[in-house]
Design a protein that fits this description.
663 residues, Ribosomal Protein S5, domain 2, Rossmann fold, 4 domains, five-stranded mixed β-sheet, 28 strands, 37% helix, 22% strand, globular, binds 3-[3-(1H-pyrrolo[2,3-b]pyridin-5-yl)phenyl]propanoic acid
Length: 663
C-alpha cells in the first residue's frame, strides 16, 4: 500500500469508530435524543423522518408523504423529495446517504439556507431513528437510479448499493424502520397520535398531501387541505359558532414568511396555536407577541377612527379583550430559530415580533376597511369582553375579600404535607370523601397532601367566570395550590411540584377527571405545559391466591397474572365484584381458589392498599398529562365539554377503550 492509501484507510477506520461511538451514545441515553423511551419517544421516530420529508417540501421539492404502519409495527415513510444525496462525501469518504443515516446531526450540514423543521425541536436527525431501530432500510431514487442500504441497530450491513433504475422524473426517499424492542417500553404505534400530527402538517403545508396507512387495521386516511390555515381554523371551530369567515393574512419580510388565519366565535375561550417551521410553539414567543400587539393596535385604531368607541369614553380595549372567542393559527418560517422555555417551545428571536406585527397590522387594516361589518362585529364582541372582564375582576375581588382563594386560608378539608419545598411536594386531588379518607391515612404525610373534592366540579367551559370563582371545589383547589387563577396565575408560586388527579376508574371518574383537566387547561395552563399535572393509575383488579396478592391495572395484565398462576380461565362464579376461579388443571392437588376482585372505586381500597398500588412513588405509575398537540387538546375539550351532544357521543364511543384522556 502506498503511504496515501495507508493514511486513507486509517482515516476511514477512525471515522467508522466515531460513528459507532455516536450510535452507542444514542442507544445508551436514548431519552437525551428523543425525550423518553415510552410511547411519546416512540412516536418521535416517525415525526423525525416525516419532518425530514416536510423539509424537502419547504425547500420546494416534495408534495406528498406516505406513512405506512405495518403489521409488525415497522413503519415506512415515503416522500417525493430530491432523495438523500448518494455521492461520496469528501470528508467521510463514503456515500453521503450512509453519512446522513449514521452520523449524528449530519443531515443539517448539507443545506443551511433553508427553513428546517428537523433543525428545530426534534432536530436529532434520521441517524437517531436508525440507531434506535432493530433494523432500517432506505431506498433513494435520484438521477435515474435506485440506491439501497440496510442497517442493524444503526450499523450498515453493506455499503450503499445501486439496485436498479427507474423511469420518469420521480425522485424520492423511502425509509422503513422497526423500532428496537431493547430500547422502547412499547413499540406499538397509535394510529390517532400519528394521524393528528399528519393532519396538522397538512394544514400547515397546504401543497403537501399526507397519507397515513395502517396495515394492522386496514385503515387509510388522506390529508390535503387546499385552504391551509383557513381550513385549520374552520376545523378547530367546527363545533363553535363563528361570527364571520376566517381572516387570512400572508406576507414576508426580511426573509421571514408569515401566515395567519383567525376568526372570532360566540364562545369565551381562546384557542390560539402558533408554529415556527411547523413546530408547535406551545409556550408561544415573539411571533405570538407580535400577532397580539397587531390585533390590539389595529382594532383600537379602527374603532376610534370609525366612532365605535367614543373619543371621550375612556375605554381602551386591552390585549385580553381580544382573546375571548378568538381562534387563530400563526405560522412563521424562521431561518435560525432560537427556542427557549421549559419545553424549548417558545420562540426567542426578537426580530420576529416586529415582522409579524408589521405584516398583520398592515394587512388587517386593509381588511377592516374593506369589511366594515366584520370589523363592527368583532369590536362589539371585544367591548362586551371588556365589560365582562371588569365584572370578573369585581367577582374575584369579592371572593378574595372573603379570603377564599389565597393560601393563607387553606381549605379545611386539605390534609397538607409537612415539608414545604414545592419541588418535593405533591398534592392528590381525590374524588370523594371516602377515598380521600383512605388517601389521608395511607399517604406519606411528609410530602403528600390530599384534597378530597365532592363529585362533579363545575364545567368551566360553559360557566361564566363569577360562577366558576364562587364554586367551593374550585376555591379549594385554587387556594390549596396557592398560585392564583386566570390572569393572576403565577406557576412559580404553586405550593406543589406535582398535582395528581385520582378519580375512580369508571365513567363518572373519567368525567370528573376531564372536568378537572378542563379547569387546569383553561385557568392554570402553565401547570400543564410545564408537565406538572399527572393522572393516578389505581389498579382495576386484585387477584388473590392464598396469601399471595397481585394487582392488575388492565385486563391484559389480569390475564397475564392468571396465566402465571396457571388458572385455566374457567370462571366458576361471577358476581359483579368478585370472580372466583378454580386454580390449575383437574389433576391439581391444590384446591385453593383464586379470587379476583374488580375495584369499582378507590373507596374500596384500604389505606395500605391505596398507598401500595397508587401512591407509593417507588411502585406507582402516574401518567403525565402533556400538551404535545395543543390543537388536539382544544378539540377534545370542546367535544367533551361543549354543547353539542352527538360529537361527544361519537368521541366517547371511539375512545371508550382508553378511559384515559391523554391530551
Ligand atoms: C440531506 C441533504 C438533502 C436532502 C436530504 C438530506 C433528505 C433527507 C430525507 C429524509 C427523508 N426524506 C429526505 N429527503 C431528503 C439535500 C438534497 C440535495 O441538495 O439534493
Amino acid at each position: 500500500m502506498t503511504k496515501e492509501k495507508v493514511q486513507a484507510v486509517a482515516e476511514y477506520t477512525a471515522k467508522s469508530i466515531n460513528v459507532l461511538k455516536g450510535l452507542e451514545a444514542v442507544r445508551k441515553r436514548p431519552a437525551m435524543y428523543i425525550g423518553d423511551v415510552g410511547s411519546r419517544g416512540l412516536h418521535h421516530l416517525i415525526n423525525e423522518v416525516v419532518d425530514n420529508s416536510i423539509d424537502e417540501a419547504l425547500a420546494g421539492f416534495n408534495d406528498r408523504v406516505i406513512v405506512t404502519i405495518h403489521k409488525d409495527n415497522s413503519v415506512t415513510v415515503e416522500d417525493r423529495g430530491r432523495g438523500i444525496p448518494v455521492d461520496i462525501h469528501p470528508e467521510e469518504k463514503k456515500s453521503a446517504l450512509e453519512v446522513v443515516m449514521t452520523v449524528l446531526h449530519a443531515g443539517g450540514k448539507f443545506d443551511k439556507t433553508s427553513y428546517k423543521v428537523s433543525g428545530g425541536l426534534h432536530g436529532v436527525g434520521v441517524s437517531v431513528v436508525n440507531a434506535l431501530s432493530e433494523w432500517l432500510k432506505v431506498e433513494v431514487r435520484r438521477d435515474g437510479k435506485i440506491y439501497f442500504q440496510e442497517y442493524q441497530r444503526g450499523v450498515p450491513k453493506a455499503p450503499v448499493k445501486e439496485i436498479g433504475t427507474y423511469k420518469g422524473e420521480q425522485t424520492g426517499t423511502k425509509i422503513t424502520f422497526k423500532p428496537d424492542k431493547e430500547i422502547f417500553k412499547t413499540i406499538k404505534f397509535n394510529f390517532d397520535t400519528v394521524a393528528e400530527r399528519m393532519r396538522e402538517l397538512a394544514y400547515l403545508n397546504k401543497d403537501v398531501t399526507m397519507i397515513l396507512r395502517d396495515e394492522r387495521e386496514g385503515l387509510e386516511e388522506t390529508y390535503r387541505f387546499k385552504g391551509g390555515l383557513v381550513d385549520f381554523v374552520k376545523y378547530l371551530d367546527e363545533q363553535r359558532n363563528p361570527l364571520h369567515k376566517p381572516i387570512y393574512i400572508q406576507g414576508e419580510k426580511d426573509g421571514t414568511p408569515v401566515e395567519v388565519a383567525f376568526e372570532y366565535n360566540e364562545s369565551y375561550s381562546e384557542n390560539v396555536h402558533s408554529y415556527v417551521n411547523n413546530i408547535n410553539t406551545i409556550e408561544g414567543g415573539t411571533h405570538l407577541i407580535g400577532f397580539r400587539a397587531a390585533l390590539t393596535r389595529t382594532f383600537n385604531n379602527y374603532a376610534y377612527k370609525n366612532g365605535l368607541i367614543k373619543e371621550n369614553s375612556k375605554i381602551t380595549l386591552t390585549g385580553d379583550d381580544f382573546k375571548e372567542g378568538l381562534t387563530a393559527v400563526i405560522s412563521v418560517k424562521v431561518m435560525e430559530p432560537q427556542f427557549e422555555g421549559q419545553t424549548k417551545t417558545k420562540l426567542g428571536n426578537s426580530e420576529v415580533k416586529s415582522i409579524v406585527e408589521t405584516i398583520v397590522g398592515e394587512k388587517l387594516s386593509e381588511y377592516l376597511e374593506e369589511n366594515p361589518s366584520v370589523a363592527r362585529k368583532i369590536i362589539e364582541k371585544c367591548l362586551r369582553a371588556a365589560e365582562a372582564r371588569e365584572a370578573a375582576r369585581k367577582a374575584r375581588e369579592l371572593v378574595r375579600r372573603k379570603n377564599a382563594l389565597d393560601s393563607l386560608h387553606l381549605p379545611g378539608k386539605l390534609a397538607d404535607c409537612t415539608i414545604n419545598d414545592p419541588e418535593h411536594c405533591e398534592i392528590y386531588i381525590v374524588e370523594g370523601d371516602s377515598a380521600g379518607g383512605s388517601a389521608k391515612q395511607g399517604r406519606d404525610r411528609r410530602f403528600q397532601a390530599i384534597l378530597p373534592i365532592k363529585g362533579k366540579i363545575i364545567n368551566v367551559e360553559k360557566a361564566k367566570i363569577n360562577k366558576i370563582l364562587e364554586n367551593q371545589e374550585i376555591q379549594a383547589i385554587v387556594s390549596a395550590i396557592g398560585a392564583g387563577i386566570g390572569e393572576d396565575f403565577d406557576p412559580s408560586k404553586a405550593r406543589y411540584g406535582k398535582i395528581i388527579l385520582m378519580t375512580d376508574a369508571d365513567v363518572d371518574g373519567s368525567h370528573i377527571r376531564t372536568l378537572l383537566l378542563t379547569f387546569f387547561y383553561r385557568h392554570m395552563k402553565e401547570l400543564i405545559t410545564e408537565g406538572r399535572i399527572y393522572i393516578a393509575q389505581p389498579p382495576l383488579y386484585k387477584i388473590k391466591k392464598g396469601k399471595e396478592e397481585y394487582y392488575a391495572y388492565d385486563d391484559e395484565e389480569r390475564d397475564r397474572i392468571l396465566k402465571r398462576l396457571k388458572v385455566d380461565g374457567k370462571i366458576k362464579k361471577e358476581s359483579s365484584e368478585t370472580i372466583e376461579t378454580e386454580e390449575g388443571s383437574e389433576e391439581s392437588s391444590s384446591s385453593k381458589n383464586v379470587v379476583i376482585t374488580r375495584y369499582k372505586g378507590l373507596g374500596e381500597m384500604n389505606p395500605e392498599q391505596l398507598w401500595q398500588t397508587t401512591m407509593n412513588p417507588e411502585t406507582r405509575t402516574i401518567l403525565q398529562v402533556n400538551l404535545e398537540s395543543a390543537a388536539a387538546a382544544d378539540k377534545i375539550f370542546e367535544t367533551l365539554m361543549g354543547d353539542e351532544v352527538e360529537p361527544r357521543r361519537e368521541f366517547i364511543e371511539k375512545h371508550a377503550k382508553y378511559a384515559n384522556l391523554d391530551i
